[in-house]
């Protein structure tokens, strides 16, 4: 079911207010007599688990000439002369097929899981990454009544495929797997595996260089961007995205380091620049602070776009510099999630403020040059350009809306600052309370949550963790994972001083300088945190016999792991222990026993992040927390293999 907003053509001073009001109207319920949503129709043949028709009509799909060969939750194509948008609808586990100009949904395809990213192959087949099924699907057909989408090929990949890219010659396909910590290189015609690279945590977006020799991979957490060889001619290497903040006063200029986070998006220009929108973070000094990070007049998180020379596979030095944190607030993009380049520049979707921002993609520091900004419905997570028609399409996951914005130039050469239309798809699985909580979790500049503009998602991207250690009133504190990790884990907080999630939320908001949430909004936020989608599958890669041996060691009295963390690692004893981990700034020596659920994907470890990986933790915590000194290297590997599966 769709709601349509009439095209807008407004004088500039009225644009922001009237456009926002029009878009908000899209989010209300559909009127009586509106057509039923295509998602309510039976799942078509060819969906995951269903039969594939032996002789489906040949595809009548044409990939756009300007297709960037990079995955997105929106793919544009021509179908029988119509401009079609394929939308990966994770919440409803459907691939939506929408006639853009007619503003109506043609069909919805069930891929057997949550589709995260798609791209179109040169022959018109649609490649879909199914995030929670560790699988890629190749779909043929266009999605119309005469040419339905059906499964052509299934390709297994490591857990949580979230990024896709093709080489310029369309011969090589690269897929990133977030929870699986892998980059898989495939032949794009046969889908046979050429190589698989183990990389750092949470790889996300990927682009391929113009010569097809290397892929650039961003990470939702951590400090680096990976350069992955596709031809075997060079080793894989990380590029540090850490930056420096230039602080000036009347006496001198000070250069302060910042760390990187939220590398969800990459984009590539025709001139060979790879742009990496993310945020630079100041987590605070080691000593006790009044809140989480920041201080000294410095904004805790600031938007940043470093520039990588794809030929040299190096970051342009000048683009590492952030000038004046707070002074750069006008260029801020809170929670950047998707990016694409076009003739006008770099477009970035900003999840925290529900906007699309256009930056100068040719500038030394693109984040310093904001050209235009559009307000869109809640939760923009994808964008695709249709430059032939001077427009872009934006998928807002929270509002469940596909919005068209004008990106061409008016007579004075300035981009037209308004939305053309917006379609809202009715959800069948919607829980209003949880949906309200999701909006609150990602809301920036909500004084009830923080005093400096941060959202819950600023430190918990995708409900997980940012791998950072923040200063706090009680000492250094590593961000814990939330998604799928709350049940059976009480009490909460590193010192176990909150018996339930509600009190822990109150304490966290207070440290962030927020005024506090009450009533329905507080309950909605808690409901969303409890309902967050847990990471899919297992992080481990070890053979089953090694995992079985590791389980036996874990549960043994000699090692002592299960005595505190529970037989399966997910039922901690709820007690506080002194494991001789007190840091200089800590105000207490005893710490709560954490759940080990998903521990393999949540490095670093301990409250102050002192252990970078599981092996280091197992070796260096001997006698302080369990006993491992008696274990051989092979037995340590087995124990580590088991922990990776939790």
Task: Describe this protein's structure.
This protein is α+β, with helices and mostly antiparallel strands and 646 residues long. Helix content is 14%, strand content 30%. The chain contains nine helices and 39 strands. The strands form ten sheets. Strands 1-35-34-33-32 form a five-stranded antiparallel beta sheet, with helices on one face. Strands 2-3-4-5-6 form a five-stranded antiparallel beta sheet, with no helix packed on it. Helix 2 packs across helix 5 and helix 8 crosses helix 9. The chain is globular, with a radius of gyration of 25 Å. The chain starts with a strand and ends with a helix.
Question: How does the SSE layout of this entry go?
Answer:
Layout (H helix, E strand, L loop, with lengths): L1 E3 L7 H15 L34 E3 L10 E6 L2 E8 L4 E6 L4 E6 L5 E6 L5 E5 L4 E6 L9 E7 L4 E6 L5 E6 L4 E6 L5 E6 L4 E6 L5 E6 L4 E6 L7 E4 L2 E6 L4 E9 L5 E2 L4 E3 L2 E4 L19 E4 L2 E3 L4 E2 L5 E3 L12 E7 L2 E6 L4 E5 L10 E6 L4 E7 L4 E6 L4 E6 L12 E7 L6 H10 L14 H4 L9 E2 L6 E2 L22 H11 L7 H13 L12 H12 L6 H4 L10 E2 L13 E2 L21 H7 L12 H12 L2
Parallel strand pairs: 19-27
Antiparallel strand pairs: 1-35, 2-3, 3-4, 4-5, 5-6, 7-8, 8-9, 9-10, 11-12, 12-13, 13-14, 15-16, 16-17, 17-18, 19-20, 20-23, 21-22, 22-25, 23-24, 25-26, 28-29, 29-30, 30-31, 32-33, 33-34, 34-35, 36-37, 38-39
């Amino acid at each position: 079911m769709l709601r349509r907003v009439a095209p807008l053509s407004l004088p500039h001073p009225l644009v922001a207010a009237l456009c926002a009001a029009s878009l908000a109207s899209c989010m209300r319920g559909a009127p009586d007599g509106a057509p039923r949503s295509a998602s309510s129709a039976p799942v078509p043949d060819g969906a995951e688990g269903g039969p594939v028709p032996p002789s489906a009509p040949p595809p009548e799909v044409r990939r756009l000439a300007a297709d960037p060969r990079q995955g997105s939750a929106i793919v544009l194509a021509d179908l029988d002369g119509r401009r079609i948008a394929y939308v990966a609808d994770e919440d409803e586990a459907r691939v939506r097929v929408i006639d853009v100009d007619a503003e109506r949904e043609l069909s919805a395809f069930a891929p057997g899981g949550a589709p995260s990213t798609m791209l179109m192959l040169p022959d018109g087949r649609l490649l879909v990454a199914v995030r929670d099924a560790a699988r890629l699907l190749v779909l043929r057909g266009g999605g119309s009544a005469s040419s339905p989408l059906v499964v052509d090929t299934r390709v297994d990949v490591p857990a949580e495929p979230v990024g896709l890219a093709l080489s310029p010659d369309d011969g090589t396909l690269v897929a990133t797997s977030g929870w699986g910590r892998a980059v898989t290189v495939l032949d794009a015609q046969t889908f046979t595996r050429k190589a698989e690279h183990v990389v750092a945590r949470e790889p996300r977006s990927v682009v391929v260089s113009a010569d097809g020799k290397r892929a650039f991979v961003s990470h939702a957490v951590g400090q680096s961007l990976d350069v992955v060889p596709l031809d075997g001619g060079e080793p894989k290497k990380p590029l540090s995205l850490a930056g420096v903040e230039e602080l000036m006063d009347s006496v001198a200029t000070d250069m302060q380091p910042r760390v990187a986070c939220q590398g969800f998006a990459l984009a590539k220009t025709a001139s060979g620049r790879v742009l990496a929108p993310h945020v630079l973070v100041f987590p605070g000094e080691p000593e006790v602070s009044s809140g989480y990070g920041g201080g000294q007049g410095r904004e805790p998180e600031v938007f940043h776009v470093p520039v990588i020379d794809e030929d040299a596979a190096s970051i342009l030095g000048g683009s590492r510099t952030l000038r004046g944190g707070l002074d750069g607030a006008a260029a801020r993009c809170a929670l950047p999630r998707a990016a694409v380049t076009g003739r006008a520049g770099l477009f970035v979707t900003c999840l925290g403020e529900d906007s699309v921002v256009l930056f100068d993609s040719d500038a030394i520091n693109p984040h310093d040059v904001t050209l235009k900004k559009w307000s869109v419905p809640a939760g923009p997570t994808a964008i695709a350009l249709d430059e032939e028609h001077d427009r872009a399409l934006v998928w807002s996951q929270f509002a469940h809306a596909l919005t068209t914005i004008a990106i061409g130039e008016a007579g004075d050469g300035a981009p037209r600052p308004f939305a053309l239309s917006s379609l809202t798809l009715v959800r069948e699985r919607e829980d209003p309370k949880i949906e309200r909580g999701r909006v609150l979790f990602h809301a920036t500049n909500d004084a009830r949550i923080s005093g400096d503009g941060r959202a819950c998602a600023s430190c918990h991207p995708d409900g997980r963790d940012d791998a950072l250690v923040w200063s706090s009133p009680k000492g250094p504190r590593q961000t814990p994972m939330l998604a799928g990790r709350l049940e059976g884990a009480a009490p909460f907080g590193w010192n176990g001083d909150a018996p339930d999630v509600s009190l822990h939320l109150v304490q966290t908001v207070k440290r962030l300088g927020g005024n506090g949430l009450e009533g329905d909004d507080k309950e909605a936020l808690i409901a969303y945190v409890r309902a967050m989608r847990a990471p899919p599958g297992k992080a481990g890669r070890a053979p089953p016999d090694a995992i079985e041996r590791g389980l036996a060691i874990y549960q043994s009295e000699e090692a002592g792991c299960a005595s505190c963390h529970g037989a399966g690692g997910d039922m901690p004893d709820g007690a506080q222990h002194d494991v001789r981990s007190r840091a200089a700034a800590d105000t207490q020596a005893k710490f709560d026993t954490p759940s080990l659920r998903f521990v393999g994907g949540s490095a670093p470890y301990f409250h102050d992040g002192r252990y970078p990986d599981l092996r280091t933790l197992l070796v260096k915590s001997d006698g302080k927390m369990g006993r491992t000194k008696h274990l051989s290297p092979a037995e340590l590997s087995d124990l580590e293999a088991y922990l990776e599966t939790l």
